[in-house]
Design goal:
Layout (H helix, E strand, L loop, with lengths): L4 E6 L2 E6 L8 E5 L4 H15 L6 H13 L3 H5 L3 H15 L5 H10 L1 H11 L3 H17 L32
Antiparallel strand pairs: 1-2, 2-3
């Protein structure tokens, strides 16, 4: 579920209204368009984070957020955490290579996973993204990450994970 955010294109800008449009307490952020070079860099940052190929995920996420929010940072900081997350994602999906208003509205309507899958597909990462999400979903269900090329394993306390045979501590010979 996303926050109460409405996205519209106004000229070359993305206008994000947080709250009900027309409500005097709503907050309107105007996201400026970024060059295609920056859109490609955003895609690289996102892919590194989403595909877990970066050692600097937190720094990359902060760089991505500051880049897409731009001059609206002060307004952005006044939002609640859930609103900030949705605003970052909307601004990102609008400016990233392969993105646009349709992808923004898909994220706001159908949620982040669907928009991420559409973005990965638009940029040729569909198979890799699908494999990663399957692995991560399986790992969270099983509680463990399996090494590449092996099945996931789970073990109950007091069992040997390789055989599922209960382990017995050694006893003394006396």
């Amino acid at each position: 579920m996303t926050s109460n955010i409405t996205a519209t294109e106004k000229g070359r800008n993305l206008e994000l209204t947080v709250g009900d449009p027309g409500d005097p307490e709503s907050i309107v952020l105007t996201i400026k368009p970024l060059s295609s070079d920056v859109g490609a860099r955003l895609l690289g940052l996102w892919a590194g984070i989403a595909l877990a190929t970066t050692d600097t995920a937190v720094e990359d996420a902060n760089d991505l957020a500051r880049t897409v929010i731009g001059a609206e940072w002060e307004k952005f900081e006044s939002l609640r955490a859930a609103e900030q997350t949705d605003v970052i994602n909307a601004a990102f999906f609008w400016n990233v290579q392969g993105g646009g208003i349709d992808l923004v509205n898909e994220m706001l309507r159908d949620g982040l996973p669907k928009a991420q899958t559409a973005l990965a597909s638009a940029n040729g990462y569909a198979q890799e993204f699908s494999l990663l999400t399957t692995l991560l979903n399986g790992a969270s269900a099983n509680g463990t990450l399996a090494p590449a090329g092996t099945g996931g394993t789970t073990s109950q306390p007091g069992t040997d994970a390789s055989s599922s045979t209960p382990t017995v501590p050694p006893t003394s010979a006396n």
